[in-house]
Amino acid sequence: MGSATNRPDYHRRYEATYQLNDAEGVRSLLRDYNAIDSQRFVGDTAASDILLDLKDAIDAAGLTALQHRALELIYFDDLTV
User: Fold this and answer.
1) pLDDT value of residue 58
2) Is residue 1 part of a domain?
3) Cα(21)–Cα(3) distance, rounded to whole angstroms?
4) 16 with 32: CB under 8 angstroms?
5) CA distance linking residue 28 with residue 19, whole number of Å
6) So what's the pLDDT on residue 15?
7) Which residue from 2, 12, 41, 74 has the fewest beta carbons nearer than 10 Å?
8) Is residue 4 included in any domain, yes or no?
9) Rounded to the nearest 5°, which phi and psi values hold at 40?
10) Residue 8 covered by a domain
11) pTM of the full structure
12) Does residue 29 sit within a domain?
């Protein structure tokens, strides 16, 4: 069998970096959520890793149900006001 490509790093290609040690870095990651999410479906495993880490961080943050729902609506479902 083997990989689908001869380029071993082709499956990990998401290029953005996020400074997650401050609020603006976290906001920029959340703003890019939908773009990162769409990359998963074209074989970008780095995007999948980012989303898994983000989910773990949100779970560890101890948010209330209302805070968690607000994150979902604003960033994940791309809804505003």
Assistant:
1) 87
2) no
3) 35
4) yes
5) 9
6) 61
7) 2
8) no
9) -60, -35
10) no
11) 0.68
12) yes
Domain range for 40 is: 23-76
Q: How crowded is residue 19: how many other Cβ atoms within 10 Å of its Cβ? A: 10
Is 10 in contact with 24 (CB distance < 8 Å)?
no
CA dihedral 58, 59, 60, 62 (to 10 degrees): 90
Q: Calculate the average pLDDT of the chain.
A: 79
pLDDT in tens, 39-48: 888 888 888 8
Distance of CA 49 to the CA centre of its chain: 8
Can you tell me the distance from the alpha carbon of 37 to that of 75, in angstroms, rounded to the nearest whole number? 11
Q: What is the tally of structural domains in the chain?
A: 1
Q: At residue 20, does pLDDT exceed 60?
A: yes
Cα 11 from chain centre: 16
| Overall residue count recorded for the chain in this entry | 81
Contact 29, 20 (CB under 8 A): yes
Q: Cα dihedral sign for 14, 16, 17, 23?
A: negative
Token pair belonging to 30 = 């959340």
